[in-house]
UniProtKB/TrEMBL annotation:
Protein name: Glycosyl transferase family 1
Record Pfam families: Glyco_trans_1_4, Glyco_trans_4_4
An example molecular function term from Gene Ontology annotations: hexosyltransferase activity
CDD domains in alphabetical order: GT4_WbuB-like (cd03794)
UniProt xrefs under SUPFAM superfamilies: UDP-Glycosyltransferase/glycogen phosphorylase
Occurrences of domain Glycosyltransferase subfamily 4-like N-terminal (ranges): 17-189
Keywords associated with the record: Transferase
NCBIfam families per the UniProt record, alphabetical: stp3 (TIGR04063)
The UniProt record lists the keyword Transferase: yes
């Protein structure tokens, strides 16, 4: 049985978009007949044993810590992570190393792959220098930005195969000089086994949040996720007075937290539509579906930036899988996922008036809600189901070398 060792920034039992995509990949590969494990670096901050089982998956932890000035500290981190990977390679003897961004993971894996003559797949989920700009921890063009980009380019150049999650990232790598034949697009996907019948609307919770007027349910716009600036939640809050002017009973539900939470709460308190906006903070993962069930429309008003134009988010796909209407800003990452007027509604980014008009139009168009929901669910099932998309990995692995596929698997022509 072919063994794949995944090299990861962090993993379950931590919860993030990164760990959920990792879980989906590893579970789908197990179903295809591969034997899989993961090894995490020093940025996996959850306590636990050095070898940990989570959701039926085995993860090895790199132990220790590093210090020093920026740059030197990261180089030490790569070295320590390489030692952790090396330990798993010696004990478990994988056939392929599959590293996932950031480039620190890729560089650590590259050292071990070359030392042991193993093929290396490097998978890019986002350019982390752009993600740092987006979440406010970096600035475009800074020394750190340029060094991170240079390290990523080095790993891409030396890896045996490269995987990206979307066309935007693929095009950027090609523009940098990466051969197109070296890159495979593995779209963001949803494990549909986790999205069966959505739970019923919790009437008591809806009443507690003020989502009923005159005994009738209010239409609810929802966002569930992290409150980063690039998500554009300030645009959504600014759009609410115009939306309420057209739909007096409309409500906005914001679930989650993050760096922008305090500023967003202050903005909402000072809004003319303050009474229509509800913050509930972070909720346990098992509670998230209760809040999804309250929402009619999931809104994703991302601002235009390199990050949002290049990278496809996971949340709109999860919303479609749950039969929710989707309204999103017209940035590159959303255009890869949403067909305007068919599977959702797109509106001009960074424009509260356009956001309000799109949401108001969607709320007024109830006659087409079922067609939107059906088209969205079908889109996820046909193009973003992990059970199908994960089969592309076997083609990537087969191309690398003499590796034999697990019994029962046939590489695509």
């Amino acid at each position: 049985m072919t063994r794949i060792l995944h090299i990861l920034d962090h993993s379950l039992p931590m919860h993030s978009g990164y760990t959920f995509r990792t879980r989906a990949i590893l579970k789908a590969q197990q179903a295809l007949g591969f034997e899989v494990r993961g090894v995490t670096g020093l940025r996996h901050t959850a306590g636990g044993p050095c070898v940990e089982e989570a959701d039926g998956l085995r993860f090895h932890r790199t132990e220790g810590s590093v210090s020093g000035p920026p740059g030197w500290r990261e180089w030490r981190e790569i070295g320590r992570f390489a030692q952790g990977i090396e330990s798993v390679v010696r004990d478990w003897r994988p056939d392929i190393l599959h590293a996932h961004s950031p480039a620190l993971c890729g560089q650590a894996a590259l050292r071990v792959a070359r030392r042991h003559g193993l093929p290396l797949v490097y998978e890019i989920r986002a350019f982390w220098e752009d993600a740092a700009v987006g979440n406010g921890t970096g600035s475009e063009g800074s020394l750190r930005y340029r060094l991170t980009r240079a390290l990523e380019s080095r790993v891409v150049q030396r890896a045996d195969a490269v995987v990206t999650i979307c066309e935007g990232l693929r095009r950027d790598l090609v523009d940098r000089g990466t051969p197109e034949s070296k890159i495979t697009v593995m779209p963001n996907g949803v494990d549909l086994s986790l999205f069966g019948s959505p739970p019923d609307r919790d009437a008591a919770l809806a009443r507690d949040l003020g989502f009923e007027t005159g005994g009738k349910s209010c239409p609810v716009i929802g966002f569930i996720g992290s409150f980063y600036d690039y998500e554009g939640l300030d645009v959504l809050i600014e759009a609410m007075p115009a939306l309420v002017a057209r739909h007096a009973d409309a409500r906005l539900l914001l679930v989650g937290g993050g760096p922008r939470e305090a500023a967003l709460r202050a903005q909402a308190e000072n809004s003319p539509a303050a009474d229509a906006i509800r913050f509930v903070g972070r909720v346990p993962h098992h509670e998230v579906e209760r809040y999804y069930a309250l929402c009619d429309v999931m809104a994703y008003p991302r601002k235009r930036s390199r990050l949002t134009d290049l990278v496809t988010p996971l949340k709109p796909l999860e919303a479609m899988a749950q039969g929710k209407l989707v309204a999103a800003s017209d940035v590159g990452g959303h255009r890869e996922l949403i067909a305007d007027g068919k599977t959702g509604t797109l509106f001009a980014p960074d424009d509260p008036a356009a956001c309000a008009a799109a949401l108001a139009g969607l709320l007024a168009d109830r006659v087409h809600w079922n067609s939107y929901r059906t088209a969205g669910r079908n889109h996820v099932e046909t193009r973003h189901d992990w059970r199908t998309n994960a089969g592309r990995y076997q083609d990537v692995y087969q191309m690398l070398s003499h590796i034999s596929l697990p019994r029962g698997i046939v590489a695509a022509a």
